[in-house]
């Protein structure tokens, strides 16, 4: 479960278990005190037991924890994501990064009914057989349509694109190379532009896996901090896995104030199952909520103009 913790780096005579935490500190079951520079591997930005955070969590738990449908808090959070990330038209929520990249994979393949997907060698996009950096436990069939290439290498990228030919569904991009136990570095601007250009030319989707770097390197998509953003076409980023996606075909036909249908003729026009769980005038809506169809996804029109 704890994939970020390596048993190889722990002492040979005992495992490490933590008992409590407060502020910037951790205490293990033996009473040893630690400064947590890792911030619980990222999400704990304000420290443990932060009074305002805990009060908000208690208040929400009093109203309801995991409910049958979304709450207004989820709507507000989705709208905040869409307002914060410049290329985002809508947002969706997944329980972990592997689910998010798997959804992005499905969307990329459904977009133009193609199969081939490019992944950088050694890049981490989740724990599913199709994307794990280690091949152990997976079969050739799991990776039958996955084409590897060397990160930040234009020649390797070009060769992989040619191998995909007219069956290129998408390219997964790590905006900041940050795999565990490896040197970390930013991609070259020429490489980032090339990935964007290839996706534009081939009508494929660019999936920016921002799961670790999102909102840390930049408040926008992490690649917004690179020179690539000087090109207006950069705003056509297809998927930002921290929750923001765009350029997907629509099949909405019955959601509250549905967006116009823009799906290709090859997609079914049947009424989708709404991810919000119900249809009706009382249903809160915003960009950030999607309707799931068996073959594709769609966004609902924004409830208010972007400011």
Topology, pairings included?
Layout: E1 18-22, E2 25-28, E3 33-35, H1 51-63, H2 72-84, E4 90-91, H3 97-112, E5 116-120, E6 146-149, H4 154-164, E7 168-173, H5 189-202, E8 205-208, E9 239-240, E10 244-245, E11 273-274, E12 290-292, E13 297-299
Parallel strand pairs: 5-6, 5-7, 7-8, 8-9
Antiparallel strand pairs: 1-2, 2-3, 4-10, 9-10, 11-12, 12-13
Strand content: 5-15%
The assigned structural class equals alpha/beta
User: Termini separation (Å)?
Assistant: 41 Å
Biggest pleated-sheet summary: 7 strands, mixed
Radius of gyration: 21 Å
Number of helices: 5
Strand order of the largest sheet: 4-10-9-8-7-5-6
Averaged pLDDT = 74
SSE sequence, one letter per element: EEEHHEHEEHEHEEEEEE
Percent range of helical residues:
10-25%
Shape: globular
The count of strands amounts to 13
- Contiguous low-pLDDT stretches (5 residues minimum) are 228-307
What would a concise description of this structure say?
With 307 residues, this protein is an alpha/beta fold. The chain is built from 5 helices and 13 strands. The strands form 3 sheets. A 7-stranded mixed β-sheet has the order 4-10-9-8-7-5-6, sandwiched between helices. Strands 1-2-3 form a 3-stranded antiparallel β-sheet, with no helix packed on it.
């Amino acid at each position: 479960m704890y994939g970020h913790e390596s048993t190889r780096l722990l002492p040979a005579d005992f495992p490490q278990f933590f008992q409590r935490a407060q502020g910037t500190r951790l205490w293990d079951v033996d009473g040893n005190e630690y400064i947590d520079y890792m911030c619980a591997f990222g999400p704990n930005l304000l420290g443990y037991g932060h009074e305002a955070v805990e009060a908000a969590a208690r208040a929400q738990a009093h109203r309801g924890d995991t409910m049958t449908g979304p709450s207004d808090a989820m709507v507000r959070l989705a709208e905040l994501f869409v307002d914060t990330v410049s290329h985002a038209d809508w947002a969706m929520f997944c329980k972990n990064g592997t689910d998010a990249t798997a959804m992005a994979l499905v969307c990329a393949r459904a977009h133009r009914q193609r199969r081939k997907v490019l992944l950088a060698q050694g890049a981490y996009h989740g724990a599913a057989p199709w994307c794990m950096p280690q091949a152990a436990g997976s079969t050739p069939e799991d990776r039958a349509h996955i084409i590897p290439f060397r990160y930040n290498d234009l020649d390797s990228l070009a060769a992989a694109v040619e191998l995909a030919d007219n069956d290129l569904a998408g390219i997964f991009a790590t905006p900041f190379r940050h795999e565990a136990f490896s040197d970390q570095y930013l991609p070259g601007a020429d490489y980032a532009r090339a990935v964007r250009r290839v996706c534009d030319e081939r009508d494929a989707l660019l999936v920016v896996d921002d799961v670790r770097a999102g909102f840390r390197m930049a408040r926008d998509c992490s690649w917004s901090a690179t020179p690539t953003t000087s090109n207006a076409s950069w705003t056509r980023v297809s998927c930002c896995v921290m929750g923001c996606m765009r350029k997907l075909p629509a099949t909405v036909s019955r959601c509250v104030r549905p967006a116009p249908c823009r799906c290709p003729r090859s997609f079914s026009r049947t009424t989708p199952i709404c991810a919000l769980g119900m249809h009706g005038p009382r249903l809160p809506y915003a960009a950030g909520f999607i309707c799931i169809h068996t073959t594709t996804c769609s966004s609902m029109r924004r409830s208010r103009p972007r400011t």
